[in-house]
Every structure is written in C-alpha cells, then in structure tokens.
C-alpha cells in the first residue's frame, strides 16, 4: 500500500483537472452501455436509473471524472465501477453482464436486494471493493465464493441476513484490508485471518470459539454481540459457568483496590497534617519553597490565584466519582463542599524530572490562560505519585460525542459546531505554541478524548504539555505524539508532531470514524494507523466520506472538502512536506460555514462524485496497468 504522502498535491490536482473540464476521451463505451442495460433487465424498481440507462446508448459513459449515466464511477474519462446506492433497487444481480465491464468497484448498499449472495461473483476478476451492506441478502455464502479475486481489498456485507460460516476463500485474498460482516447471522468460528493491515467488524452475529491470534489487537467492539466468542481482545476462553462470577470478581477487586487506595491516602494525610489554611497565595508558596521537604504530605500546591483554596483532606472528603482510567492514569471528579467540581488525576509515571523542575513546570502551566485550554488549578506532589487538579468541564469529550451512544432524539454534532470546534482547537494549539517555545511537542496528547466540550460546545484542550515530566518509556507507550510516523520510525518527535495529531483529529471529526492509532497500545509499527488514514482518504471512494450526522446540505460541502484537504496536509508522512502549525492554523481560520458564490476552486467544480473519483486517483495502487 502506498503512504498518504502526496495526497495534498493530488487533491489540488483534482481541482485543476475538474475546473478545466478535460476533453472527453475518444473511447467508445457503447458496448459497456449495452451490458449495463442488460444488467438492468434483471433488476426491479429501476426508476432512478430509467432516465439515463436507455437507448440511444451514450458513446461515452464518462467525461473526465463525471459520469454521463447515473451510478457510474469514472476516472480520467474511463468507466471503473458502479455505485448504485439508496435507489430502492431489488431483483437479481446479473454477474454475467457485469463481467463484460471493467469493474473495479461495485456498490449496491442501502437497497432492497434479497435472496442469495450474487452467484459467481468471482467472475469479476478485477473487483477491488464489493459493498452489499444494508440489503436483505440471505442464506449461506459458498466457501469458494471469493476464489481467485486477487485484487479484492474491501468486502462489506454488514446489515444483511447471511447465515452459515464465514467463507474460507476470504483467506485467499492477499490484499484484503477491510472485512465488515456485522449484523448478520454468521455462525461457527472466525477463520484464521492472516492478512496484514486488515480491519474487521464481526459484531452482532452468532459466531463462537476463540478469536484468532492475528485479530487479537483489534478493538473489542468489533466482536461484540456474538454467541460465545472468547480470547483477546475479549475475555479469555474459559468454561462458561465461571465467566460471570469472574467478571464480578474483577469488578469487585478493582473497586476494592481503588477504595483502599483512597482510604490509605486519607489516613496518611490525617496523621501527618492538620488541615491547611486555605488562603495561601502563590507568592507565599514560593517563599516557602525551601521548606517543602517538611511538608511532603497533605499539601496541595495552587498554581493560580483566581480559584478557591482547599486542602487535600477536603478534597478526599469531597464526594468523588471515578471518571475513568485514561492512558496516563485514573481520574476522579470531586465536588467540594462549596459545590465547585474539580477533576483530580493520579499519575504514577511522572518522575522524569526532579522536584524543583516539576514545580517549575507546573507553575509554568499555571500561568497559561486561554479560553480553549483546560486550566491547571493545582497539584499534589509525592515522589511516587502526583495528583493534578483541573476544572471540571460539563459536556464530556469530543470523542464521546462522536462515538458514544446517543439517545434517539439527540442530534449529532452538525457541521457549524464541528467547524467551531476545530477552530477552537487550532486557537488553543496556537496559544500553546506561542507560550511554550522551548517545549518540542507543546501538546503531545491531542486526541478527541482530550478535547472537552463546554455547555456551548466550545472545545477545551486537556492533557497538554505533559511530555516533559512524563517518564520517557511511559510517554512512548501512551502519548499520541509517539504514534506519529517520525516517532515510530526514527524515534524522534518534532514541533510538527502535534500537527500530525491535528490532522488525525480533523479526519476523525469529518468522517465520524474512530482512528485506529488511538487504540494501539505500545509502540509497534503504526501500520494500522496507515491503513486508517488510507481507508479514510483513499480507499473508500464509494462509501460516504463525511459523517452523515453533520446534516450538511450542499452549502458547506466545499468548505468540508477544504478542511479534508487541510487534514490530509497535516497527515503528511514526510515531515519536510508536512505543514507547520502556523500554516495549518491559518488555513483553518479561513474556513467558513457555507460556501460563498465566488468560491470557484472547490465548491462549484468538485461534486461528490468527483471526490470519490479523486480518492481513486490518489490511490497509487489504482492503475489499470497493474494486475
Ligand atoms: C422503489 O424505489 C423508490 C426510490 O427509488 C423507493 O422509494 C421505493 O421504496 C422502492 N419500492 C420498492 C417496492 O422497493
Ligand atoms: C438502509 O437502507 C435504507 C434505504 O434502503 C436507509 O433508509 C437506511 O437508513 C439504511 N440503514 C442503515 C443502517 O444504513
Ligand atoms: C500495510 O500497510 C503499510 C502502509 O500502508 C504497507 O507499507 C505494508 O506493506 C502493508 N502490509 C501488508 C502486509 O500489506
Ligand atoms: C461495527 O459494527 C457495529 C454494529 O454491529 C457498529 O456499531 C460499529 O460502528 C461498526 N464499526 C465500524 C468501525 O464500522
Ligand atoms: C473501541 O472503539 C470504540 C469506538 O468505536 C471506542 O469508544 C472504544 O474506546 C474502543 N475500545 C478500545 C479498547 O480502545
Ligand atoms: C489520469 O490522468 C492523469 C493526468 O492526465 C495521469 O497522471 C494519471 O496517471 C491518470 N490516471 C490513470 C489511472 O490513468
């Protein structure tokens, strides 16, 4: 697979190409048009096709990247596939007629097809992607169904009524990168998939048995809702009767340990310290500092003046709620007697710097003040453990809004909101870069779960600027910065590393899809990230790129495309070519909610269809000469 290195350049190329309206090619497609009409005859309810797919036959199915017949996919004036989605179609898929076409991609998603899996689909030897999602196909798929389809990359069968075993011939597709069979009734074991870079979705079937080793690093959610699957990433395989009691035991143990830790901390503080006076100011602390050795326990250190003062004991007495254990450490919400809520985070892996330097760094963070940054309020220092106290933000994280469960009447984030969010993120980052010029990666942990949203859905960045105090090993394991290509390859991070994370965040925001790189623990090669970026930007050219929840209408599409392009330029693998933060921020600030009439570069020329074709074009693997 190719890396996304030239994506930026290619998108610009698309604009130029489409604005020039390249002259029609000289090819004669009438025989293809004939085959399409033959194919149509076995379909039912073809009203959406009837306007175009009829005599007289067109001579060219494509003009440049624009189809002349609805549903055709075009590339450089050549017909390359069919995208017949949401057309109310039913009937039979006549593979015989399709086999007369140069068909690289076939999508019939969201229609009313029923009956068996299309017979002899492997006669379509060039096929790279097959999308049958959300129809009513049923019955078993023959084990040999995919035999010989050496070019196949994406097989998307979700939301149908398929039964029986997952066909073994899928194991013979060397290039397979995406297999989605969720919400069917497949049964039996999951075959031993071996392909590198493969992402899968097996959720909500009737599968059972052990999950193959090679898939053990996939997100557990891709296996949910099956009868009896076990093994990593789910529960270990054990006799059934133990599993529930075991879960209960683990839950009890975790709760117990957390409680014990709190009680011990509480007792220690009670013994060593009377409650502190609340009114100490920063200056006072600073003059006291030489004595801090005598005050090692029980003492909170406040880094800003505009907050109430409280002591550790009060914090521990506050009603607390476990918020979760992030990649850095566990966090709690504590509501003080005054009613004020704070978040307390425990860090164990923060002994990278000595005490003086730690205090200095925290004071520096305390001096930061920006509407898009979560303020650090204070901290507690012990050699083995640190507590950082920040404000509490009402509305959860961007990640929870993008990927969490919503109640049915709650709308998704719309485009204007998402645009505001990314603009706020950019402002926050720009501020960090200005204020922390000596830190290589001023944020270092930018991802959607660290972008909090306040009541007005304005973004507030958290977890920033911690790399200098985090133990190096730990940072490499857990920070997003260390999953950038330069870090995985050459083990170094640069001031452009945050830009990479910003790019991923942009792609996530636009597509609503969860980036694979947050999932992977440890360092390993970031091949799944590469796949993710690729699949977002290039391979999915017959799926919808943009998250449907954005409710965009056509008025903002040009602007969304611009943002997509910015995201791709931020995700440039080559650091030299990757934009620096200033450039990314400038481009983001230029974006508007709606396309204006004089925007002639994107909105007026690039239609949805062009975008999909453009993704095919940017896919280096896509060329007619290659087998
Ligand atoms: C026929 O197609 C139209 C849209 O093209 C759709 O609204 C309708 O439900 C379909 N009818 C049947 C019977 O599938
Ligand atoms: C399935 O397709 C129908 C149109 O046939 C569409 O209305 C519906 O939203 C689709 N469902 C999913 C889950 O994509
Ligand atoms: C996985 O993807 C990476 C980057 O896209 C590519 O270099 C590598 O060859 C792929 N691995 C396999 C086994 O296909
Ligand atoms: C996997 O399938 C489930 C539905 O069964 C769906 O909720 C989830 O979004 C899918 N994941 C991906 C990455 O497609
Ligand atoms: C799996 O993916 C979902 C979103 O699709 C995410 O909320 C969840 O945190 C992921 N699980 C892990 C273990 O990373
Ligand atoms: C499409 O046309 C462009 C420019 O004319 C060319 O560089 C590219 O190789 C062509 N792509 C294919 C797949 O033919």
TrEMBL record:
Location of the protein in the cell: Membrane
Keywords: ATP-binding, Glycoprotein, Kinase, Leucine-rich repeat, Membrane, Nucleotide-binding, Phosphoprotein, Receptor, Repeat, Signal, Transferase, Transmembrane, Transmembrane helix
EC number: 2.7.11.1
InterPro entries listed in its UniProt record: Kinase-like_dom_sf, Leu-rich_rpt, LRR_dom_sf, PRK1-6/SRF4-like, Prot_kinase_dom, Ser-Thr/Tyr_kinase_cat_dom
Signal peptide coordinates: 1-27
Predominant cellular place of this UniProt entry's protein: membrane
Domain spans labelled Protein kinase: 317-591
Topology in membrane: Single-pass membrane protein
GO molecular function: ATP binding; protein serine/threonine kinase activity
UniProt key word Metal-binding: no
Catalytic activity annotation: L-seryl-[protein] + ATP = O-phospho-L-seryl-[protein] + ADP + H(+); L-threonyl-[protein] + ATP = O-phospho-L-threonyl-[protein] + ADP + H(+)
GO annotation, cellular component aspect: membrane
Pfam families: LRR_8, PK_Tyr_Ser-Thr
Membrane-spanning residues: 247-269
Family of the protein in this entry: Belongs to the protein kinase superfamily. Ser/Thr protein kinase family.
Name of this protein: non-specific serine/threonine protein kinase
Organism: Penstemon smallii
């Amino acid at each position: 697979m190719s890396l996304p290195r030239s994506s930026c350049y290619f998108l610009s190329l698309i604009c130029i190409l489409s604005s020039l309206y390249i002259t029609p090619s000289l090819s004669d497609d009438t025989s293809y048009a004939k085959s399409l009409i033959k194919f149509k005859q076995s379909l039912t309810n073809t009203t959406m096709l009837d306007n175009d797919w009829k005599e007289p036959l067109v001579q060219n199915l494509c003009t440049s990247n624009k189809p002349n017949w609805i549903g055709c996919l075009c590339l450089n004036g050549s017909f390359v596939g069919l995208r017949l989605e949401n057309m109310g179609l039913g009937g039979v898929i006549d593979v015989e007629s399709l086999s007369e076409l140069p068909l690289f991609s076939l999508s019939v998603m969201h229609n009313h097809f029923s009956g068996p899996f299309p017979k002899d689909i492997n006669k379509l030897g060039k096929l790279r992607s097959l999308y049958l999602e959300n129809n009513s196909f049923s019955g078993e798929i023959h084990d040999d169904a995919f035999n010989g389809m050496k070019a196949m990359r994406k097989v998307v069968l979700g939301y149908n009524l398929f039964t029986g075993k997952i066909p073994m011939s899928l194991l013979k597709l060397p290039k397979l990168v995406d297999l989605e069979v969720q919400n069917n009734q497949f049964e039996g074991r999951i075959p031993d998939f071996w392909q590198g870079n493969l992402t899968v979705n097996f959720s909500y079937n009737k599968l059972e048995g052990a999950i193959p080793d090679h898939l053990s690093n996939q997100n557990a959610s891709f296996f949910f809702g099956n009868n009896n699957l076990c093994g990593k990433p789910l529960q270990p395989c054990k006799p059934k009767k133990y599993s529930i009691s075991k879960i209960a035991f683990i839950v009890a143990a975790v709760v117990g340990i957390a409680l014990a830790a709190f009680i011990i901390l509480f007792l220690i503080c009670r013994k060593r310290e009377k409650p502190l006076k609340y009114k100490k100011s920063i200056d006072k602390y600073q003059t006291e500092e030489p004595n801090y050795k005598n005050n090692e326990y029980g003492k909170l250190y406040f880094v800003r003046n505009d907050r109430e003062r409280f002591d550790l004991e009060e914090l521990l007495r506050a009603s607390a709620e476990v918020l979760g254990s992030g990649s850095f450490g566990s966090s709690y919400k504590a509501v003080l007697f005054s009613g004020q809520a704070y978040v307390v985070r425990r860090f164990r892996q923060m002994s990278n710097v000595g005490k003086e330097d730690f205090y200095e760094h925290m004071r520096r963070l305390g001096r930061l003040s920006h509407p898009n940054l979560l303020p650090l309020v204070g901290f507690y220092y012990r050699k083995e453990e640190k507590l950082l106290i920040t404000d509490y933000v009402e509305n959860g994280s961007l990640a929870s809004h993008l990927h969490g469960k919503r109640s049915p009447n709650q709308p998704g984030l719309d485009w204007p909101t998402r645009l505001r969010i990314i603009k706020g993120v950019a402002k926050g980052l720009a501020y960090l870069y200005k204020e922390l010029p000596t830190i290589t990666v001023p944020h270092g942990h930018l991802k959607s779960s660290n972008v909090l949203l306040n009541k007005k859905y304005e973004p507030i960045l958290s977890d920033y600027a911690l790399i200098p105090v985090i133990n190096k090993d730990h940072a490499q394991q857990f920070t997003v910065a260390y999953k950038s290509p330069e870090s995985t390859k050459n083990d170094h991070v640069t001031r452009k590393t945050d830009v990479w994370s910003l790019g991923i965040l942009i792609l996530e925001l636009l597509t609503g899809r969860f980036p694979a790189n947050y999932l992977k623990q440890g360092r390993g090669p970031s091949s799944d990230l590469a796949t993710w970026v690729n699949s977002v930007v290039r391979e999915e050219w017959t799926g919808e790129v943009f998250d449907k929840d954005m409710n965009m209408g056509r008025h903002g599409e040009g602007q969304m495309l611009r943002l997509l392009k910015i995201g791709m330029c931020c995700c440039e693998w080559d650091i030299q070519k990757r934009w620096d933060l200033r450039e990314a921020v400038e481009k983001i600030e230029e974006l508007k909610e709606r396309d204006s009439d004089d925007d002639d570069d994107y909105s007026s020329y690039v239609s949805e269809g062009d975008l999909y074709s453009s993704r095919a074009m940017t896919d280096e693997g896509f060329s007619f000469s290659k087998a």
